[in-house]
Write a structure and sequence with these properties.
By secondary structure, the chain is mostly helical. 53% of the residues lie in helices and 6% in strands. The protein has helices spanning 12-48, 57-84, 101-114, 138-141, 171-176, 179-190, 193-196, 199-220, 227-255, 261-291, 299-313, 336-352, 370-392, 442-446, 463-470, 478-498, 524-544, 569-578, 582-591; strands spanning 93-95, 121-125, 130-133, 166-170, 294-296, 363-365, 547-551, 555-560, 563-564. Strand 8 and strand 9 (563-564) form a beta hairpin. The two termini are 65 Å apart.
Length: 602
Amino acid sequence: MSGTGSIMEAGAPSARSRALAVLRVRSRALAVGLLPAALAVVLVAARATGRLAGDPWPTVTLVVCVVAAVVLLVGGAFAAVVLRASPAVTPTVPLSEAAAPDLYRLVRDLADRMDVPPPSAIALTPDCDSWLEDRSHAAHRRGGARVFGAAPGPVGPESEPGAAPVLVIGSPFLWWMRVAELRAVLAPVVAGTGPSAHPDIADARGFVRGLDAAVDVGSRRGLGWIAPPARLLLRLCRTDAAEMERGVAAAASERAQGVDYGLRIVAQEQVGLAYAGWDRLLTRVALPAWRMGRWPAHLDAGVVSALTELSRRDRLADGFTSRLGERPACDLLEQPGLIDEATSLLAARLFHGGPAEAGPDWSPVDWAAYPEEVVDRKWRAEAARLHAALDALAVPAGLPAGPSGSPAPAAPAPSAAPNGSAGAAARPGSSGASGAAGAAGPATLAAADSASPTADAFAGPTLERVLGYLTDLGGEGVAGEALAGRITGELAREERAAGPAAGAGKARGADAVPLFPLQPPRSGRDLLADHVTAMVCCAAVDSAGATPGLDWLDGPVLLVGGDRRSDLAPRVLCLVEEGNPEPLRDWLSALGVRPEKPVRLV
């Protein structure tokens, strides 16, 4: 394969033949559109020469001419939409040559060694993948490229007619991989510019992209008649288009065989490791911050810490940490910190639906401030929501459930401790109340919604209030279900009030919902367990000297004496799912946490 577009590798002949098959679909569609016009010409010519004289040929000729005119009009409009519709462009962070001259030199050297055209530009994406993207469509040159609903960016050399595709690189690769590893990973991707320059393959790709864009235009702009024929043509050429891309990939892979082939095997292991660490960093570290209206400003730097920790924990990755002494690929950037911040903001847009710009309700946070500004605030907010739900479900002091789940005899309301906390006599297991105090049986819960909050055993933002309410000697878990329902409803109301990007302020302009959501909706039990865990952590911080912390793979964690406590989760689940507080009470006692002490909720 050469820069002129000739294709010699295995798979290339198949790619070209499949491209021709796609183009035949286009030719047949054009022939169908022109057939009525051709028939009309024949009839008019025959009438003019006297070959079709008399009835019913005048009427037939008129009808065919009208049909031909309508078909030409509709076909012309459809062709115009296919040619002018803007193919979707992946949201990326553009990387100019001035911002990364060394990276551009590395890519051009790869292209020269493989004798293929160099990419027209380089862009970064907050994902663990790399690909070539054609941005030479006419709509891009008009400055109207559709970036998944975002405003179009400036027109660059990649939008010139016949320009080579843009090389899109996953930003985690630049921070985790070494320069040689990045070069080995990019070689087969860059090799794909050769097949992309072949006229038949380029035309076939352009036709498929135009049809895809036409389907989108028909759906978004109310042009319902556009979408069905576009979908039909896509179905007719789907198989050939897929096989064409497989052939292109095979040709590019063979072309890249001679470039750092041995190192590529090791580099592919780093790709898998980077994907695992990046996914954990987004879902467990970044997502809690995004939900609070904060976005970590250096996700790519964080992935290095996450992957180093993953390498330390994973026996299969024991040798990977020795790589850190080699030159990282982010050294190829002139200002890696600024690029990291831009890709971090884009990640929040794509995976959470946050605004495209920072603002008062959508501000960056550094890793050093993450425990205090995100973890502690997250725990306090969830603890406050938990107590608000308890306020709505407060059971009068005279109706605590007995061991059988039926209402126990009324008891005098205990005196409230300072700051609204429940007195010691109200705590389950204490000498001043029955061991079932605070547990809610079915009969009690039936009247819970109609009961107004009172100064009873459930009053005050204390952990004891939570333990007492969720304690279920009957093991039916009804109290937990009611509380989980309240929390789920409150979260839904908060999200509706905050708009599509909950907790992050409303996005400016389009793209206000996550394009690639990280997690499915959580169940009520999961939400309740999260909120109880947050309450326990707040109590430990306020009364036992614990501190909020950050684990690069697991996100917010509780630190006691500087050590992470990972044994809390099963005890919380025992309380939430079984109504059994004893394992958690033992854990609290061992740490010196005082459940009856009020916690700070803000």
